[in-house]
Write the structure tokens for this entry.
Amino acid sequence: MRGQVRALRELALVASREAISADGRLDVGSLLSSNMCAGLAIELALKCFFMTFREQPPPGIHRVHALFEELPPAWRAEMERAYKGDPRRNADVRIAAFQNAPTPPTAPAHAPSPHEFASIEQALLTLNTIFHDSRYFYEFVGAGEWSIVDHPIEQMLAIIDVLTSMYEHLLNLAAEKAEPE
């Protein structure tokens, strides 16, 4: 599963770069693909903890915040410290708004606020359903005057890196305990 997390992280990064054209326009397909890959990488990274360090399989859920809440408090606290030390959590969030109305409606009021990514817990709440929302985006287009996609790629990469680093740390600790003295 670690290989999947790494591959999805790289796909998210590549798709994010491809989403922005030379003239500054956004390609919605690449943007959504990046969000899907990053969201799935976060989910799988969280599920790795259950599959490796617990006697039972991961919960059959996809909401990343709920998965995070199932981890031991000490692990969550360590991940929080690592995330808060990562400057990417404060990066600007790219927003794409698509007009659904036949005539230009008033500008959308939506914009992510910095507090949505201030902590790993808040970030995971914000990203709780990003895989699902990006995967099924086209089923919801047209429900209002605007369809809006947030693309917090830097924050998602920071979370993936924190989860991966913590997982590797726990693997090393387990290996040290297993070594005969």
Summary: The mean pLDDT is 87. Strands lie at 94-99, 146-151. The chain is about 55% helix and 5% strand. Residues 28-53 form the longest helix (26 residues).
